[in-house]
Amino acid sequence: MKILTTAKKVVDVELTIHVENGAIVEDGLQYVINAWDENAVEASVQLKENNGAETTLVSIGGEDNTDMIRKCYAMGIDNGIHIDDPALDKADSFVFAKVLQKVYEKGDYDLVITGKQAQDTDSGQTGIILAEVLGVPCVSNVIDIEVVDDSHIKVSRLGDAGTEIVEVELPAVVTVSDSINEPRLPAMRGIMMAKKKKIQVMDLAALGTSPDEVGGAAPKSEIAEFMASKSRQAGQKFEGDAAEITARVVDLLANEAKVL
Amino acid sequence: MAKVLVIADIKQGVLKGSTAELLSKAKAIGAQTAVVAIGSNIESLTSELANAGSDTQYIVDDPGLELFSAGPFASCVVDAANQFDANLIWFGFSESGKAVAPRVAAQLEAACATEIIDVTLDGDQIEVTRPAIANKVMQRVKVNTERLVAVVRAGAFEADEGISGTENVVKLSAPAADLKAVIKELLSDASGEIDLADADVVISVGRGAKDQAGIDLVKELANDLAAGFGSSRAMVDGGLMAHNKQVGQTGKIVAPTLYMAIGISGAIQHLAGMNGSKTILAVNKDPEAPIFNVADYGIVGDLFEVVPILREEINKIRS
Lengths: 260, 319
Description:
The model of chain A has no long low-confidence stretch (mean pLDDT 96). Chain A has helices at residues 35-51, 66-75, 93-106, 126-134, 188-196, 211-214, 242-255, and strands at 2-6, 9-11, 19-20, 23-24, 31-33, 54-60, 79-83, 111-115, 138-149, 152-158, 162-169, 172-176, 200-202, 221-228, 236-238. By secondary structure, chain A is of the alpha/beta class. In chain A, helix 2 (66-75) crosses helix 5 and helix 3 (93-106) crosses helix 4. Chain B has 319 residues and is an alpha/beta fold. Chain B folds into 2 domains: 3-171, 3-Layer(aba) Sandwich (Rossmann fold), CATH 3.40.50; 196-318, 3-Layer(aba) Sandwich (Rossmann fold), CATH 3.40.50.1220. Chain B has 8 helices and 18 strands. A 7-stranded parallel beta sheet of chain B has the order 7-11-6-1-4-5-12, sandwiched between helices. A 5-stranded parallel beta sheet of chain B has the order 15-14-16-17-18. Strand 15 (236-238) of chain A pairs parallel with strand 18 (297-300) of chain B.
């Protein structure tokens, strides 16, 4: 089985983020692998370990994606493809999907695994749109993947009515939830080996396509501006005798907030 | 004129509140409205769909649509969107909506935006506002296409009580089943439980509850208030609570009138799933817990001591 996994480098959501003049202030930000993509990498490596597979990671982004790809190598990924092209700076989910389609068509992949969304946009579209443009089945929000045979997998998906067990014909795209696994910490040996491995770096031309073909020049939507989030203010916090402060808070819920 | 198609949110045969909320917003921006209802044995919902504010009801009623399957559901929405010539296609917040919206957008070559909290129209120019980066920032997004498919964040729009629609049913034929992604089984959530997504009060339990006895204690409070009963991720990972109970960015996003976080420290992903609540009460032993930064009311204390008193005082006030 050949597995293609995607990983995006995103802003570290644990840090404070400031907005000025409609843009995010870059100063002090750090960039890390998207947490859901880390789950996708772990799921791919587990399939390789348990069922035998060749795993390839693709990442779209700037030069600083290299360390993230090496981290994925250290986790057990076999091959890395880095798509780096300034024409993709304003890409939306459709553009990313078109680029991934080109990567997919260059390999002979049976399964694509992506995180269910990226932490920077929280959009959750790219994997699903990729399946549409490839014309292959897709299951999103997956929490378990089991190989049935060479051409089928069985996945569990968290849906509105419960956990759906879906049998999927390959090739297919699945997007994974963080509930699927706990990503491993790479071992030292893996980290050392990852340093020596090659990464295939390509721009759109090398990928056999162009900004026009993938829609990079005219995205379907674009961010006009960022705004600060209306953050909630800390309210009244009570410490002391439990009976006394709890009675006080219940009174406030009923008579001040009027929600009881 | 804008034409809004709302995808009816139907769970176990019941029409959920988000449908009227989305239709109310559509009418508020002066749009023509239609709704598409997809499922099995749903024809009895027609008048309810009209009362929710729709002027056309596209109904796809087929036994094959009883269980959710993203492919066929997307085909139904595309069919209705084309018949109605909708330029705005809105899903309420749900896992089904998140799975189907990008497919519909790809098939209609429309733009797609998820978790929107507002939409504005200036002539043909559509813009939406949505949170990003775990709710830490807002984005104003310019749509460069004539059509937009969107998933609306829970609690973003309010239902207008005075809204009405007219009954005008259009039956659509059912699409073929997806033979490449076949649903074999549905491990159903416990039925009869209150749906987190539309409960007025949601009470969530976290690591502070320690074990089943702690969970049961908090559950009693939820039962008293007929509240939805949720959980932090830690409890789900620990196997103490089911996946479908997880409140947070990766689980259920809720916006109830009252949210109680009991024994939850307040990881960023949890906050992103509940900080749209009207009023938040937090109970936590640690006075420095981040949950207190978003709580309107905070009780610093041991939940095993506080929750029984909370029950007693609430019951006193409600009797």
